Amino acid sequence: MDRKLIIGTRGSELALWQANFVKDSLAAINITVELKIIKTQGDRILNLSFDKLEGKGFFTKELEEELIAGTIDIAVHSHKDLPTENPPGLIIAAVSEREDPAELLLILKDCVDVHQKLSVKYGAIVGTSSNRRKAQLLAHRPDLEIEDLRGNVPTRIGKLRDEKYDAIMLAKAGVTRLGLDLSEFHVEEITPVELIPAPAQGALAIQIRENDHELFEALQALHHTNVAEELAVERTVLKLFGGGCHLPLGCYCRKEDGLFQVFTSKANEGDEFPDRLFLEAPTTEGLAEKVVAKFAKGRKHPASVFISRELGEQSYFRKALEKHGIAIEDRSLIRTVPVITRFDSYILKNIDWVFFSSKNAVEYFFQLNPQFPKKVKFGVMGSGSEEMLRRKGHFTDYVGEGTDTAEVAEEFAKLANGKIVLFPGAESPMRSIQQGLSADTKIIDLPVYETVLEEDVEASGADVMVFTSPSNVEAYFADNLLDPYQKVVAIGKSTGKKFDEMGVKYTLPYSPDEVGLAEAVFGL
User: Fold this and answer.
1) Can you give the residue ranges of the Porphobilinogen deaminase N-terminal domain (predicted)?
2) 205 and 92 share a domain?
3) Candidate list 73, 81, 166, 275, residue with the active-site label
């Protein structure tokens, strides 16, 4: 390409990083570029929260106007800032590789409480300008005070440093790109499955004039087709909901094991408890439409749900169901009791890892008041066990996600093979994780509790039956059968295996926790 191109960009450090990234990428294919800094409405108006700004595209409109006028040739945007419709005459010619779309919670070190979920103290003031983040944060931590936070990334961090907030939330992608040192804060990384990001978060959009065919062809060297396919699902969901940056909507699409997985969180207001959904499909065709249909107003939900676990008043699952008037029948069909009251502390002398497969394992192990003579690492299966471990004052070094214990065992083995690993657990454990470790790994099984099945379990007439363990399945079906209209949700593959043996169809949540259960119920 003979002509020299002009890239239009906002003037923030992050926007300039993004523009220079594209500039350097073009230079690598012998295309010369210069930058032009353009101020947008979002840059000029800093005293209002996003939901008070008029219209959409308040970080992109001025760049697009200059692109249409021909004063620039390329506009580089953070893809999540773009409206879902391009102005007439403009197209997205390329999208970048996607940076990790996780969120970071930056916490002042004297405001850390590891016993709390997300590690921020009770009643903390958290800064974020996003209704999406606000709704999801409050769903997990209703005690938090969420206050508006504006400015570029360094400005926001400066406000935290000045103690105007106890913690703030930022996209990991921006922090990574700027290479910022966050060592003065406690940093809690929240995966895009735990707190669902904005549609297209972490990707760059390269926008040009539709009739600039030569430039379009040149930019295909920078285009990531696989990323574009996933982002198209997220942005179509956003478009179908008619939303902009102020809508409390999170949508994240990824391809795993040949299937497209879509995680969605939606509320109407930032202080409303959000609905969550998980869907997967072999192709993206019609996938966004299926997601939106599940959120349709007036969609019929089950009238009642049984769960084989007692739920607290602040239970995420309880609040998710009660929001829609769904009656909940929560009762455990088993009891757990300790099998030891003390153990020889010599067992802990050379331990490298302690792995917990359940909340019960954490609870009963720490009732024994273990004293570790050296620093050990902790692994857990699922976020429920992670949360229980937090309450005991410990962080996890590995969290197994999903319901496939074989996959978790494979991942954990990469960290623990050749080490000494203690497995506190049930008296007759399934040993799914242990079986995935190498022969040179020393495995110590420590039974700390046993499971006792309740007798004469009363049948439930609920529309949806949620079973939280194989033992609960055994206890219920010792005396009862399913009615033809009842649907079943099973936590984990070991629980599902019981239904496989019975020939019963069931739904397996993506994650074996209360969020995953809520997603599964609303996906039926």
Assistant:
1) 5-215
2) yes
3) 81
